[in-house]
């Protein structure tokens, strides 16, 4: 038997009626890169009147990929939000929409097409996603020099964000559509297998090592904002709340966008207000 259930950021494959495997094959991948043209940037520029959009090109540290991103330069800000997108999101499909939501906060912004997706070439796996995110954070610090750096991870990007900043210095962390760890995510999202007597679920070590709880308990204790959707069917909000409760940060906030699904959280009035407050507090420190 072969059955596959897809999520934003995770999927489950059942093989031979007995074993379900969650591996880094879940990571969305394009067959060929799609270039970001000058015409595309010019079109996007019309949507961001308070920003100057600049294309970024970065050779990956392992030499196996060229990573393409965008820098949204707000002339009134010396602070920056580095956004790590969810699985399958590209600059041209979902990425610009996310930037339009974050433009509300009038900070500089950086977003990359991750390896193997959109304009970035190469082949992605968990290790390369983490290495690329760390490299991009260093690049932002060294080349853009923000006064304050906030890292925002969404869905799969939230796992990448926590692991990337575990041993790095940042000024604020925003996690949206986030879970405690990959195993809890599978258990909460796909409980059906518990009733199949001959089915076991195996989470590969690289996926299983994506443990957000470990990071917020033992590594990152800085300002933290967690945003969950009350109607999020992809990542149950109770996992985000559990992560918030496990955090050792002395400056943390949990926001439940009660009527939002996985993609609507940043349009919620409470989430917008909390984000404004978070950015204001972090950038005034």
From TrEMBL:
Protein name from the UniProt record? Lysophospholipase
Ranges for domain Serine aminopeptidase S33 come to 101-207
Under the heading InterPro entries, the entry gives: AB_hydrolase_fold, Hydrolase_4
Provide the organism lineage as a comma list: Bacteria, Pseudomonadati, Pseudomonadota, Gammaproteobacteria, Alteromonadales
User: What keywords are assigned to this protein?
Assistant: Signal
Q: What are the boundaries of the signal sequence?
A: 1-20
Q: Is Signal included in the keywords of this UniProt record?
A: yes
Q: Which domain of life is it from?
A: Bacteria
